Amino acid sequence: MVLELKLRKIGNSVGLVLPKEALAHLKAEEGETVLLSEGPDGSLRLNTARPDVSPQMKAAQSIMERYRNTLRELAK
């Protein structure tokens, strides 16, 4: 599925309005939380937030912040 979406100014921010087709594909509804993450190829991925994944993401973020310099050196 490829959808062309338009960025719109919402207050002092810029927002993206998802059409019904995209919401149905994500199995998401208004007011739910979604996650925007970077894929291994640099692409961006939009997924619905799953409660069982949130603690894991918080732990990973904490590790990445703590060992930022080490991870940067390993990435060379």
TrEMBL record:
Molecular function GO terms recorded: DNA binding
SpoVT-AbrB domain segment(s): 8-54
Region annotated Disordered, chain positions: 37-60
Protein known as: Putative addiction module antidote
Species: Prosthecobacter debontii
